[in-house]
């Protein structure tokens, strides 16, 4: 549990613990923070400083790579950054596997998530101690990137589209990971991926354009709470660019992450894997490795993750940068101190007898308490999307058909550990009902493949290791049948009935040897059926090769369809027909469909659709037609669309919830617990509602609940219950005006008016009614998950600090609170508001713009989004607006009463020839006030000031547009004289 000191710290800095909506929580972050208590001590830092003094330059540089070698002469052991621990210890053998992060987010239960984080931290320590330090204690977790677009291949790794939900869940998880010792860390969490990273396609070259308002009000706020709480020790710089500059060399690392931290000297920022190589590779940002590494270190990066365990390229480049003057020893020493201070916080320099976590041995891994916690988390993350008419909960007197491709499977995702056991929905329901009441069917066809030209069948090996798929003249169904499951429009898996192993490709030969689909970028066990006139072709999706016959064996080796083998796909058992028969024979049908966590979308690959696979939809349609009492269980890593939502009476969603998936689903289906999870992101109806996945301006695109995502399938915060709740007696104080030194208090009474005990998630939103700028449609200000027995009531109280209502004022480049009235909305979801109130908030009125001072173009109020690009002013710092022919930026409410006669515009232009800048009144086509020609500066980073004579610029609160004609320019500053 969170210790009292750090709980008080959270309250003081405005981060809720989620234990109760009392006290001052959720205050908007201030731009500068006061010093907060730190685990680090002055004495410890002095010891680190003394150690740095003893190290040679080469030894210091060796500590800046992921794999840090031992330095025996100063008693430094080897050290490795980066143990994955997203929802359990990953990639290091068996460990407790909790629900995916998206599932942890759907609990809306920070107290639970802190316990999960603590269990994961214990298992990291257990593996560390059991391996004599071989398993590192710097964990790269959690992922807190906003879930702004469900097509993102790594959607399952994040918590929410909302910074408050994500911030509270991440703070709780990192609190558990960090441990409760007041002096030392159990593990040292690093947050992924800072910042503006939500697409896999071209992820290293994507330029995430983050306007100042959204940067400060939205994107940064996902990372701030765990850093400010002192739980996370740093961030991982993301692959992408932000406003033209690669994040690996972004000054945001120092400007924000270290400013937020209670102890800036104990922040350890790391690169993503191989990302530094991109600076001179795909990003073409620097000409030399030396210059690239020097810029990264000065920007705030402390550890380079590249070239696996071979640190030589990194160390040679940094040494070269020191030698040629790109880097100085002061910057080197500062980065080394960051590394060693975190190592010190992990207790590395303690004698074993004083290590507060020495008792965490391998016996903690997968212990019964963790198994039960995994089951509790898997239960609490389930979301009841629909129950009308109410089929759920299922009576234990009923006979149940458990159907679907995920009914008897539980899959690991890329960042899962190895499950010590797997409880599938079939397992869970069979345990509850007994085998005699359960009838199962996968709902997938069992097929035989007959090669067209020879009429021979494809056979498979019968042993556990399988064998090479070959053609055989005999019709031996037990050897040659394959269960064909469709996961996307073009991705199928083939599971051989001969040994229940998946068909994979080994050295281009097809072999039925894989226990489950797996593999980096694209799994090796997926195939595509392509219809042709005389049968079907089989295409291996990973290698993009067609299956051909060579010496009687199947090989994924043909580049052209004309060289591929033709097969006849004979259905020996019709999956839909079998499932329908099972459904009609039983009292109720539970159909489990969804997605495979490694197929269709995952790291390195975004999704193109949110629709479930066509064969799964076909299964659903037929079952619900045959059995009106059908329950759909969707198991997925992201929002999906079945297309038959209206026909289905009851729909339950779960993430890929780990080893306890089946028992947890059964607990909810039979009503041992009422589902209390809530959606942490909006579910669109289709991809047609979404913009380009690289569009990061959610305000412009109307994305997430904050900006009114149009007509969603299910809204943010949505979730039904087996019970019902009444909201009453909403009180908002003060009744007058909320002053800057006060807090608003919202109280509401909630009563369970149903017949069973259940959880409710009380959600509090506000909407600012008037503003000089566009404000979000609504903002979540607080939430609390409560448990009530039938007829039980409780009063939920929530306090909001005045600064929580702040916004980013681009005119003065700071946070301010506008004087305004806010609607207070309390309910069960963002679209299920039960009670409304209002609150007057005192604050500033944003004054007219004063362009007599130098004003950044990026701080404009509006611009022509289709023709501008936010770019880097230089390789080190700053943001400018890249403009082309016809593009414009607009400044509103400009004070022109001084009747300026000249404007100065700072511009860079790489191309030859001349462009033109115009200043116009009111709009891009308004009255011309002046113009000037812009010649080339021969360098995109070389800015020149150009004078624009003005005629007729006068008045108060006028709109001024800067328009570009006939070429491309980078506009840096504007000033009126």
Automatic annotation (TrEMBL):
Residue ranges occupied by any Cellulose binding type IV domain in the UniProt entry: 851-977
The entry's keywords: Hydrolase, Signal
The keyword Hydrolase belongs to this UniProt entry's keyword annotation: yes
Range of residues in the leader sequence: none
Example GO molecular function: xylan 1,4-beta-xylosidase activity
Gene Ontology biological process: arabinan catabolic process; xylan catabolic process
Alphabetical list of SMART domains matching this protein: CBD_IV, Fn3_like
Listed SUPFAM superfamilies: (Trans)glycosidases, Actin-crosslinking proteins, Beta-D-glucan exohydrolase, C-terminal domain, Galactose-binding domain-like
Residue ranges constituting the Fibronectin type III-like domain according to the UniProt record: 760-830
Family: Belongs to the glycosyl hydrolase 3 family.
PANTHER family: BETA-D-XYLOSIDASE 5-RELATED, SUGAR HYDROLASE-RELATED
Name of the protein in its database record: Carbohydrate-binding protein
Protein's organism: Halocatena pleomorpha
């Amino acid at each position: 549990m969170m210790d009292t000191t750090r709980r008080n710290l959270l309250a003081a800095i405005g981060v809720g613990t989620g234990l109760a909506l009392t006290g001052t929580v959720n205050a908007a972050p201030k731009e500068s923070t006061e010093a907060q208590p730190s685990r680090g001590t002055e004495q410890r830092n002095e010891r680190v400083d003394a150690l740095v003094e003893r190290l040679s330059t080469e030894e210091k540089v060796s500590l800046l790579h992921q794999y840090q070698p031992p330095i025996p002469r100063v008693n430094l052991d080897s050290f490795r950054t980066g143990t994955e621990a997203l929802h359990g210890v990953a990639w290091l053998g068996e460990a407790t596997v909790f629900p995916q992060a998206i599932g942890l987010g759907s609990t809306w239960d920070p107290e639970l998530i802190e316990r999960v984080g603590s269990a994961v931290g214990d298992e990291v320590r257990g593996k560390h101690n059991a391996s004599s330090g071989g398993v590192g204690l710097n964990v790269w977790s959690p992922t807190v990137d906003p879930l702004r677009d469900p097509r993102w291949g790594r959607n399952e790794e994040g918590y929410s589209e909302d910074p408050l939900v994500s911030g509270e869940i991440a703070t709780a998880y990192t609190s558990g990971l960090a441990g409760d010792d007041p002096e030392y860390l159990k593990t040292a969490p690093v947050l992924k991926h800072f910042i503006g990273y939500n697409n896999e396609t071209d992820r290293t070259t994507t330029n995430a354009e983050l306007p100042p308002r959204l940067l400060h009000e939205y994107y940064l706020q996902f990372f701030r709470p765990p850093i400010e709480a002192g739980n996370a020790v740093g961030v991982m710089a993301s692959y992408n660019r932000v406003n033209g500059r690669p994040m690996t060399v972004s000054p945001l690392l120092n400007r924000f992450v270290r400013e937020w931290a209670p102890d800036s000297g104990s922040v350890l920022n790391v690169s993503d894997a191989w990302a530094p190589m991109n600076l001179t590779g795909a990003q073409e940002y620097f000409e030399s490795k030396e210059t690239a590494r020097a810029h990264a270190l000065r920007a705030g990066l402390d550890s380079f993750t590249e070239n696996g365990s071979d640190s030589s390229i990194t160390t040679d480049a940094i040494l070269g940068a020191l030698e040629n003057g790109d880097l100085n020893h002061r910057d080197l020493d500062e980065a080394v101190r960051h590394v060693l201070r975190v190592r010190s916080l992990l207790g590395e320099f303690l004698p074993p007898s004083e290590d507060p976590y020495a008792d965490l041995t391998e016996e903690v891994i997968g212990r019964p308490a963790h198994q039960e916690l995994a089951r509790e988390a898997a239960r609490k993350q389930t979301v009841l999307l629909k129950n009308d008419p109410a089929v759920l909960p299922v009576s234990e007197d009923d006979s149940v058909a458990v159907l679907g491709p995920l009914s008897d499977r539980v899959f690991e995702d890329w960042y899962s550990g190895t499950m010590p056991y797997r409880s599938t929905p079939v397992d869970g329901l069979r345990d509850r009902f007994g085998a005699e009441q359960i009838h199962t069917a996968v709902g997938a066809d069992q097929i035989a493949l007959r090669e067209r030209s020879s009429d021979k069948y494809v056979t498979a090996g019968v042993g556990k290791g399988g064998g090479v798929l070959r053609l055989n003249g005999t019709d031996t169904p037990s050897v040659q049948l394959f269960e064909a499951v469709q996961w996307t429009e073009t991705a199928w898996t083939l599971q051989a009935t001969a040994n229940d192993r998946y068909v994979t490709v080994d050295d281009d030969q097809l072999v039925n040897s894989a226990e489950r689909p797996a593999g980096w970028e694209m799994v090796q066990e997926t195939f595509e059926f392509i219809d042709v006139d005389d049968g079907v072709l089989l295409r291996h999706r990973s290698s993009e090769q067609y299956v051909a016959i060579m010496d009687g064996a199947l090989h994924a080796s043909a580049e052209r369809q004309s060289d591929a083998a033709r097969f006849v796909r004979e259905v020996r058992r019709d999956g839909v027909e079998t499932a329908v028969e099972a459904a009609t024979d039983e009292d109720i049908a539970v159909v489990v469909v969804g997605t495979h966590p490694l197929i269709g979308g995952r790291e390195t690959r975004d999704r193109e659709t949110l629709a479930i696979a066509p064969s799964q939809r076909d299964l659903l349609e037929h079952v619900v037609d045959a059995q009106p009492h059908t329950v759909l269980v969707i198991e997925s890593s992201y929002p999906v669309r079945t297309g038959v939502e209206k026909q289905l009476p009851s729909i339950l969603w779960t993430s890929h919830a780990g080893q306890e998936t089946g028992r947890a689903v059964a607990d909810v289906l039979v009503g041992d617990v009422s589902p209390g999870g809530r959606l942490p992101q909006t579910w669109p109806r289709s991809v047609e509602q979404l913009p380009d996945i690289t569009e990061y301006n959610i305000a412009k695109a109307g994305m997430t609940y904050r900006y009114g995502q149009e007509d969603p399938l299910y809204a943010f915060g949505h979730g039904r219950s087996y019970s019902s709740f009444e909201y009453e007696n909403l009180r908002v104080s003060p009744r007058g005006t909320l002053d800057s030194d006060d807090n608003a208090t919202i109280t509401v009474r909630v009563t369970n008016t149903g017949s069973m005990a259940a959880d409710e998630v009380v959600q509090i939103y506000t909407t600012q009614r008037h503003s000089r700028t566009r404000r979000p449609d609504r903002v979540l200000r607080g939430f609390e998950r409560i448990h009530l027995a039938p007829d039980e009531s409780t009063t939920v109280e929530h306090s909001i600090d005045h600064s929580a209502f702040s916004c980013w004022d681009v005119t003065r480049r700071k946070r301010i609170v506008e004087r305004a009235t806010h609607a207070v909305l309390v309910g069960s979801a963002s679209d299920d508001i039960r009670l409304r109130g209002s609150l007057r908030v005192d604050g500033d009125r944003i004054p007219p713009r004063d362009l007599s001072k130098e004003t950044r173009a990026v701080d404009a109020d509006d611009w022509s989004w289709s023709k501008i690009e936010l770019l880097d002013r230089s390789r080190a710092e700053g943001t400018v607006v890249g403009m082309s022919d016809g593009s414009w930026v607009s400044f509103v409410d400009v004070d022109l009463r001084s009747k300026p006669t000249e404007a100065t515009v700072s511009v860079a232009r790489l191309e030859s020839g001349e462009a033109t800048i115009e200043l116009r009144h009111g709009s891009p086509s308004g009255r011309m006030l002046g113009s000037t020609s812009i010649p080339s500066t021969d360098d995109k980073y070389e800015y020149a000031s150009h004078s624009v004579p003005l005629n007729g610029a006068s008045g108060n609160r006028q709109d001024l547009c800067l328009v570009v004609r006939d070429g491309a320019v980078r506009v840096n500053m504007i000033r009126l004289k």
